[in-house]
């Protein structure tokens, strides 16, 4: 039905030729943007409703005093539907430590929350199929769990700024929502987030379409194809300071792949852009001493590189 | 009429500014006199038990955290 509508809009409404490259590009653009937008609105609604069950206070209770392993798995899973704005990283961190959540488990949560993003997952699903989306979510979880276990094992508690341990928080009361309120919250999240990412998404798809049409298809093959093992660490390094909205990132990843970049390399690039950002690190410096911050960055860098290589191996 | 104390908790990101603007508008529309205070120090924010910013504190109590409520919702809270 969607395809018929896109065909009608491109060929009848706009009068573009059925065989012309422009007609095909416009048809593709209309079809893709409508499909992704609808999927996104549905997924954000569902995640919004799930989110009403996962309040910060409950997460603290669930994770407080957990042991290594189960605690890290739980923290990584809870990090997925939990929204993450870099301005919230510090209060969240302090709240966890104050509630007795072990440092390693706190880091599993802190890694999973921005890295595994429902918007990126939905767009990967819509544009590349469920296998790539599942690889993204699965590897993100593994990275978050391992990063937390490593940091926990290293015994870096002294590398957290001292004031964090001195804070005594008041108990905040959280009122339980009923189903009507949960649905209302889901709808308002779906509306506001979909509208917010829509411009990025359209620009991303449009740029994707343009590059697709004009750049030669083996453009990136020579230096970012899977025969160049150095490509993965290089793109991850490039991605660290970059920070982009996940919605704009996925279409660009699509283009990189179509121009010859290996799939694992492109996914590693995307993870490094959305999972590791300079602003977040600057904010985290308020609670973490430089040594811990550096260890965290190195662990993430190595995991993204390893993931990229692993995918290139599996998919290649 | 007593003056209501309203605090905006957050590091100064765009969401905090939006929350403050909404809260001010809600007070104006209700004709409530309020003094506004910004709490930007992380230690102080955490002291309220808040883990997601921005947060709205009315009369010393956290009423909303982790999102930006619209003007109507804040009016409802203030009428309490």
Task: Describe what this molecule looks like in 3D.
The complex is a heterodimer of chains A (316) and B (80). With 316 residues, chain A is mainly α. Chain A has helices at 2-13, 21-51, 56-63, 70-79, 89-98, 103-115, 118-128, 130-153, 162-166, 179-214, 221-224, 231-239, 246-258, 263-275, 278-284, 290-315. Chain A folds into two domains: 1-53; 54-167 and 198-315, no CATH class. In chain A, 73% of the residues lie in helices and 0% in strands. In chain A, helix 4 (70-79) runs parallel beside helix 6, helix 8 (130-153) runs antiparallel to helix 16 (290-315) and helix 13 (246-258) runs antiparallel to helix 14 (263-275). The two termini of chain A are 35 Å apart. By secondary structure, chain B is of the alpha+beta class. Chain B has a single domain, classed as Glutaredoxin (3-Layer(aba) Sandwich). Chain B is 40% helix and 26% strand. Chain B has a four-stranded mixed sheet. In chain B, strand 3 and strand 4 (61-65) form a beta hairpin. In chain B, helix 1 (14-30) packs across helix 3 (71-79). Chain B starts with a strand and ends with a helix. The mean pLDDT of chain B is 82. The A-B interface holds A 56-57, 60, 83, 85, 87-88, 90-92, 94-96, 98, 163, 167-173, 283, 286-287 and B 10-13, 15-16, 42-43, 45-53, 62, 65-66.
Detail the poorly predicted runs of chain B: none
Question: Sheet bearing the most strands of chain A, described?
Answer: none
Beta-strand share of residues of chain A: under 5%
Strand order of the largest sheet of chain B: 2-1-3-4
Supply the number of structural domains of chain A: 2
The average pLDDT value of chain B, as a whole number, equals: 82
Topology, number of strands of chain B: 4
Distance separating the two termini of chain A = 35 Å
Span of the ends, CA to CA of chain B? 15 Å
Return residue spans of chain A where pLDDT drops below 50 for at least 5 consecutive residues.
none
**How many independent structural domains of chain B?**
1
Largest interface, counted by CB within 8 Å of the partner chain's CB: A-B, 25 and 20 residues
Tell me, what is the CATH class of chain B?
A: Alpha Beta
Indicate the proportion of strand residues of chain B.
25-35%
In helices, the fraction of residues of chain A equals over 70%
Number of helices of chain A: 16
Shape of chain B: globular
In CATH, the architecture of chain B is 3-Layer(aba) Sandwich
Radius of gyration of chain B, whole Å: 12 Å
Helical percent range of chain B?
Answer: 40-55%
């Amino acid at each position: 039905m969607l395809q018929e509508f896109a065909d009608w809009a491109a060929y009848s409404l706009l009068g573009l030729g059925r065989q012309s490259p422009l007609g095909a590009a416009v048809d593709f653009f209309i079809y893709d943007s409508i499909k992704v937008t609808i999927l996104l609105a549905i997924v954000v609604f569902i995640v919004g409703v799930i989110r009403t069950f996962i309040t910060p206070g409950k997460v603290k209770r669930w994770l407080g005093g957990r042991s290594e392993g189960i605690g890290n798995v739980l923290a990584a899973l809870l990090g997925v539907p939990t929204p993450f704005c870099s301005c919230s990283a510090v209060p969240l961190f302090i709240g966890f430590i104050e509630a007795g959540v072990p440092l390693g488990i706190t880091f599993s949560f802190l890694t999973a929350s921005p890295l595994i993003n429902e918007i990126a997952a939905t767009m990967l699903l819509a544009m590349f199929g469920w296998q790539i989306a599942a690889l993204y979510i699965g590897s993100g979880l593994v990275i978050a769990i391992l990063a937390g276990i490593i940091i926990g094992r290293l015994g870096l508690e002294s590398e957290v700024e001292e004031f964090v341990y001195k804070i005594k928080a008041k108990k905040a009361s959280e009122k339980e929502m009923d189903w009507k309120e949960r649905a209302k919250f889901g709808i308002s999240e779906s509306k506001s987030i979909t509208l917010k990412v829509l411009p990025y998404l359209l620009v991303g798809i449009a740029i994707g379409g343009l590059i697709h049409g004009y750049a030669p298809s083996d453009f990136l093959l020579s230096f970012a194809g899977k025969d160049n093992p150095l490509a993965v660490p290089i793109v991850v390094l490039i991605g660290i300071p970059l920070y982009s909205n996940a919605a704009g990132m996925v279409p660009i990843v699509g283009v990189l792949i179509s121009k010859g970049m290996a799939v694992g390399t492109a996914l590693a690039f995307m993870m490094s852009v959305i999972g590791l950002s300079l602003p977040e690190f600057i904010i985290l410096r308020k609670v973490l001493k430089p040594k811990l911050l550096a260890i965290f960055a190195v662990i993430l860098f190595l995991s993204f590189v390893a993931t990229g290589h692993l995918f290139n191996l599996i998919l290649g | 009429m007593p003056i209501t104390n309203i605090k905006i908790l957050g590091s100064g990101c765009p969401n905090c500014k939006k929350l403050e603007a909404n809260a001010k508008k809600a007070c104006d529309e209700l004709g409530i006199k309020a003094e506004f205070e910004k709490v930007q120090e992380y230690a102080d924010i955490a002291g309220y038990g808040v883990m997601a910013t921005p947060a709205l504190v009315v009369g010393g109590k956290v009423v909303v955290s982790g999102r930006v409520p619209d003007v109507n919702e804040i009016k409802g809270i203030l009428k309490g």
